[in-house]
């Protein structure tokens, strides 16, 4: 009986794989969240790459690096989903930052950030065609060749979709990861947002993604308004998004889950409560998974 | 099948048309859902304004209830800057405002941003060279001087400031 349980657990471990060391629960670095990050050494950290100069890190972020905290640079303007090869200067910045913070990997988006020299100011969705998949795969390969650590790719939340897609979003993500060998930054809020706004089943979508390639997971706040879900990062995490995080952890063992908050900063107590809620969702999912395994 | 440069050029043209429509300078391209485009355009504008308000509290306060409309006009005419996010974007917005509407605190925010960025023909870029600027503030009356020396960083001093 015990041997059977060991075999079952081993099978689950082999199935979900381990692409990285466990990270636990994390929080995106912002000056406003510095105190919460500093006081809890268990938190891992993500920093928006474009917001910092690797040669002159903000003191509080440098202190987190010095104490050995895992810090993951997260790019937002590389435009890997754009029509041009990624800018060598932006790649160099990301690579230098990765080395400065001793990152295990870096992350960016499956999105475009500019076209014809016009900045989007945000990460925008890409057409899900074979042609776009070819171009983006090549862009990702160019980035991977310039980076000292593995690259994880994040799918974005999009209120509007390109017409006539030839693949579902999960098929596109899976194909891109398969071709490039990139890791997955799974954003449960983005997945929920697109499922809600474009009418697909979020649990089914989880089943179609390569969960064994997850580097870490984003959990962000948002709000329902006028029949749409907005991924704002300035509102609390919705219960529906926590439910997706739990479902994910019932199916796989992602190395870490990180809270993204970009504005409308709540009190430190409220931030800690959100982190606790994410940890509780992960535990609830993990115990369901353990229940199934034995 | 078209060559790779041709395929990349076509993708860029499609993405530019989508982007220009989202920023309100072009009609919705064929095939896109009009309601979804409007929701996405409004959401992008809200996020952009939110970043500016975060970095420019005094400017936002000075412009007051006209802010959403004034910023929307600016944003339609001016794509976001390539660097600097809200701080750089707010500078482009601030320099287009009637200086008479600005408070001393808003002018101080402009000085701090100008030490980091330059605006050339409406486009904001990172400043490479030195900078020095001053603004007179009231209550109490004082002069704020902001300087940037390449390699040394940015500093500021206030002269005066003792209440009468």
Describe the structure.
Chain A has 294 residues and is α/β, with parallel strands linked by helices. Chain A has one domain: Alpha-Beta Barrel (TIM Barrel), CATH 3.20.20.150. Chain A is built from ten helices and twelve strands. Chain A is globular, with a radius of gyration of 19 Å. By secondary structure, chain B is an alpha+beta fold. Chain B is built from six helices and five strands. In chain B, the strands form two sheets. Chain B has a three-stranded antiparallel beta sheet, with helices on one face. In chain B, strands 1-2 form a two-stranded antiparallel ribbon. The chains are: A alpha/beta (294), B alpha+beta (164). Chains A and B meet through strand 5, strand 6 and helix 5 of A and helix 1 and helix 2 of B.
Fold blueprint:
The complex is a heterodimer of chains A (294) and B (164).
Chain A: H1 2-16, E1 24-28, H2 34-39, E2 44-48, H3 59-66, E3 71-74, H4 88-100, E4 106-109, E5 112-115, E6 118-124, H5 130-146, E7 151-154, H6 169-180, E8 183-187, H7 188-198, H8 202-208, E9 214-220, E10 223-225, E11 228-230, H9 239-251, E12 256-260, H10 268-293
Parallel strand pairs in A: 1-2, 1-12, 2-3, 4-7, 7-8, 8-9, 9-12
Antiparallel strand pairs in A: 5-6, 10-11
Helix pairs in contact in A: 5-6, 8-9, 9-10
Chain B: H1 4-22, H2 34-55, H3 57-63, H4 67-77, H5 85-95, H6 104-114, E1 117-120, E2 123-126, E3 131-137, E4 142-149, E5 153-160
Query: Given the C-alpha coordinates, what overall shape of chain B results?
Result: elongated
Supply the number of structural domains of chain A: 1
Shape of chain A: globular
Overall CATH class of chain A: Alpha Beta
Q: Largest interface, per-chain counts?
A: A-B, 35 and 38 residues
Number of helices of chain A: 10
Reported for the largest beta sheet of chain B, the result is: 3 strands, antiparallel
Spatial strand sequence of the major β-sheet of chain B: 3-4-5
- The class by helix and strand makeup of chain B works out as alpha+beta
Mean pLDDT of chain A: 93
Strand content of chain A: 15-25%
- Percent helix range of chain B: 40-55%
Order of helical and strand elements of chain A: HEHEHEHEEEHEHEHHEEEHEH
The spatial strand order of the largest sheet of chain A comes to 3-2-1-12-9-8-7-4
Relative helix content of chain A: 40-55%
The Cα radius of gyration of chain B reads 20 Å
Oligomer: heterodimer
Strand segment tally of chain B: 5
Q: How many beta-strand segments of chain A?
A: 12
